[in-house]
């Protein structure tokens, strides 16, 4: 079944879901590195626990923000496909 024949679905394609998941993971890693480095630059002495907390908080905030962006992008792509399909059907009529 080609994409033209397939019924319209709110579920994004598997490739889009994988790309969104990878983007969230990369955002979390980047946020963790930023949080760790931020605490590392400001802390003196024994800083293992603060560095870990900075890493965790940075990763959670960045991954959470990236997940919001990913959901919005996936919804926009779904709406875009819906509009394209509606216009294609109107053009055939």
């Amino acid at each position: 079944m080609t994409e033209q024949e397939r019924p319209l679905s709110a579920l994004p394609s598997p490739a889009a879901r994988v790309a969104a998941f990878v983007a969230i993971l990369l955002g979390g890693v980047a946020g963790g590195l930023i949080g760790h480095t931020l605490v590392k630059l400001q802390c003196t002495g024994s800083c293992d626990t603060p560095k870990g907390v900075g890493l965790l908080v940075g990763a959670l905030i960045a991954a959470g923000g990236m997940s919001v962006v990913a959901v919005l992008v996936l919804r926009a792509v779904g709406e875009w496909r819906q509009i394209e399909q509606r216009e294609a059907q109107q053009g055939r009529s």
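The radius of gyration is 21 Å. The mean pLDDT is 89.
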